[in-house]
Amino acid sequence: MSIERSTKVIVTDLDGTLLNPSHKISDYTKSVFRKLHQENYLIIVATGRHHLDAMPIAETLDIPFYLVTSNGARIHSPNKELMFSINMESEAVKSVLALDIDPEITTVLFRENVWQTNKLNEKLNSFQPELNYQPELVNFNEIEDFAAIKIFFTHERHSKLLELRDQILETHTACFSHAFSLPLCLEFMDKSVDKSVAIAQILEKEKYGFHEAISFGDGYNDEKMLLNTSKGLIMGNAPDSLKNKLSHLEVIAPNHEDGVASYLFDKLLNKTA
Q1: What rounded mean pLDDT belongs to the chain?
Q2: Of 106, 121, 127, which is closest to residue 19 (Cα–Cα)?
Q3: Other CB atoms closer than 10 Å to residue 200's CB: what's the count?
Q4: C-beta contacts of 160-168 below 8 A and 24+ residues apart
Q5: Residues 213, 8: contact at Cβ < 8 Å?
Q6: Which is nearest to 82 in space by CA: 198, 177, 176, 178?
């Protein structure tokens, strides 16, 4: 069966995928997604971003969509109602932050209304065209409640984050799921959290299956999503390590060339093709 006939659901990551390098959705991409909505495709946006950060960006599509955020720790319905929510337990987070973490690493706790960090990082702020999800500089030694949606670490050297990942997993193997959303961004969530798990909940609610969905992504936090859908498309700007690991998947044009929208127009909307 052709992709045009079998596809009912479109799942897309945001950063490095649907968003251009300015962290915005281009006018061309908006126009393609509006046409997809008119033709009754179900749209799911699945991102590592916090919902307060992701919602205003995704809303510029100006169509109904399901929103999966924090890699699956939150699901919002097309009418913005919270459908699913899970946090990391306070003691588990506290035990991670008690490790001897290199002070050069920026550590962030995704809380419900603010993100708490040991150092303000302008590069992180630049990911938000509008600062809807506010940073709060804190001393983690002075915090009592550590319950969080996820723990986020960033550093300019991927190798340093790999060392930190191994350090945490050495004593917390069964506690968390983790992923590199970007080579310089390491994230830990509750062990039950993954984009693909959240997407499965949406598909069940809408009476669809993964075999009727295609997905687009550029990071390791997209890996299971890309593998579970009937067709997973990797962005041309994705790390070579991800392309090599998932070498059987098709690589499409990068985000700065509207790769997602161009593919969808060509495969699903271009009736003369």
Answers
A1: 92
A2: 127
A3: 16
A4: 160/102, 160/104, 160/105, 161/105, 161/185, 161/186, 164/101, 164/102, 164/105, 167/99, 167/101, 168/96, 168/99
A5: yes
A6: 198
Structure tokens at 272: 């003369």
pLDDT at 18 over 90: yes
Q: What is the pLDDT of residues 204-231, one digit of tens each?
A: 999 999 999 999 999 999 999 999 999 9
Assign 125 a pLDDT band (cuts: 50, 70, 90).
low
| 158-168 residue pLDDT tens | 999 999 999 99
The candidate with the shortest Cα–Cα distance to 187, out of 23, 50, 68, 25, is 50
SS3 151: strand
Mean pLDDT, residues 149-166: 94
Phi-psi label, residue 152: left if phi above 0, alpha if psi -120 to 50, beta otherwise? beta
Pair type for strands 134-137 and 213-217: unpaired
Residues in contact with 97: Cβ distance below 8 Å, sequence separation at least 6, in sequence order: 107, 140, 146, 151
Enumerate the active-site residues. 13
**What's the pLDDT at 126?**
53
Residue among 111, 175, 115 at smallest CA distance from 149: 111
Q: What is the distance of C-alpha 70 from the center of its chain?
A: 6
Residue 87 CA to chain centroid, in angstroms?
A: 16
* Rounded distance between C-alpha atoms, residue 62 and residue 146, angstroms: 36
* Stated pTM of the model: 0.90
Task: Return the structure tokens found at 248.
Answer: 């059987």
In this predicted structure, the answer to whether residue 123 has a pLDDT above a threshold of 70 is no
Q: Is 113 left (phi over 0), alpha (psi -120 to 50) or beta?
A: alpha
